[in-house]
Amino acid sequence: MCLEAGEVVENTRKMLTRFFNGTDSNRLCFSYNSTDALNMIISGMLKKGDHAITTTIEHNSVIRPLYHLAKFNGVEVDHIPFNSKGFVDPEDFKKKFKKNTRIVIVNHASNVIGTIQPVKEIGKLCREKGIPFAIDVSQSAGKIPIDMEELNVDVIAFTGHKSLLGPTGIGGLYVREGIEIRHTRAGGTGVRSAVKTHLYEYPYRLEYGTANTLGIAGLHAGLKWIEKKGLNNIHGHEMKLTTMLRDGLKKIKGVTLYCQDDLSDHISILPCNVDGMEAINTGTLLDVDYNIAIRTGLHCAPLVHEQLGTTEIHGAARFGIGPFTTEEHITAAITAVEEIADMQKKKSG
Q: Which residues contact 191 (CB under 8 A, 6 or more apart)?
């Protein structure tokens, strides 16, 4: 039984390494989720006097660890803003490079506006300067192909519970050969127990305690389904429905969309607001009256909403389209938002 469980863990490690086009499955380390992985990356690659570059696209899983290091550990951080279409400019990173820049970290695809950032170009600039480049693929993994070599990426952080179709509580990171991350914790690894220090070699360097074997098994099942279905088929299906939703909502008076004019280089996420309504109220009506589940608020990405100007109305109503979404679901969503917008117009006079 132990050998069978271990085989599931190692097979999943190998599957994920192939999935990201890594070269050594031992450098695929499991974690609790992306937040856990990103904390290990950030804390393990930065120290006092170092400089980091990131963006305003980031999730709090990047913003907060960097903020804490800046406030309490003497690390300098620069945030690159996105343009009106929702994309950062690679040249802006080049302008911020310093002698003490030790990491550039970018959210591959925004969890608020769905834009896929030009990570290949950013990675090329980092590679030329010898600066490690990490990306957060929480939203993109399972939706679009991610090839570390093609994208010039050194470290990937992922979670299993989104488009990789695994359960909550499982994620990880892949560390390219030549890139080192200090271990910031210590504990059991299940091997070489007589050694008093935490093990130096991967994956044990960044894995602590008993593995979430059930979570890894669930992630394994999700990966098998994705491989069978095909990423291009999944993305094509999702973006067809996203376009349908975008076009339907654009026709409704009193509905504002954000960074959705051109859906090239997007994943299937669509944020909007009904004029005069806070996002949470739109979401509550969709849930209670129409049985439609969306995510409202700041989406753990406050800097995005600061740039969008949606902070005062507490964020946006965000639709997420997945591989099991249907055209009937999209039609129902458009009809519901139209009725809510009409109700709001009558209410406001």
A: 199, 204
CA–CA separation, 169 vs 308, rounded Å? 31
Q: Mean pLDDT throughout 155-179?
A: 98
Which residues contact residue 3 at a Cβ distance below 8 angstroms, ignoring those fewer than 6 apart? none
Query: Hey, what amino acid is at 172?
Result: G
Is-contact 230 144, C-beta < 8 A?
no
Q: Write down the residue that tokens 């359960």 correspond to.
A: 167
Task: State the virtual CA torsion across 87, 93, 96, 98 in degrees, nearest 10.
Answer: 150
> Structure pTM?
0.96
Per-residue buried b or exposed e for 5-38, using 16+ beta carbons within 10 Å of the residue's own CB: eeebbeebbebbbebbebeebbbbbbbbbbbbbb
Structure tokens at 169: 């509580």
Domains of the chain are 2-229 (3.40.640.10), 231-348 (3.90.1150.10)
> Checking phi first, is residue 22 left (phi over 0); if not, alpha (psi -120 to 50) or beta?
beta
Interacting residues of 151 by C-beta distance below 8 A, sequence separation 6+: 119, 120, 123, 135
Q: pLDDT tens-digit profile of 72-103?
A: 999 999 999 999 999 999 999 999 999 999 99
Please tell me the distance from the alpha carbon of residue 98 to that of residue 52, in angstroms, as a whole number.
9
**Which of 246, 247, 253, 289 has its CA nearest to residue 270?**
246
Q: What distance lies between CA 260 and its chain's CA centroid?
A: 19
> How many whole angstroms separate alpha carbon 323 and alpha carbon 252?
26
Measured CA to CA in angstroms, residue 181 lies from 41, 49, 63, 159 at distances of: 6, 17, 19, 19
Those residues whose C-beta lies under 8 Å from the C-beta of residue 291, and which sit 6 or more positions away, are none
Phi, psi of 63 (to 5 degrees): -60, -50
Both structure tokens of 137: 């693929």
Beta strands in 140-189 (DSSP E): 155-159, 171-175
**pLDDT tens digits, 209-224:** 999 999 999 999 999 9
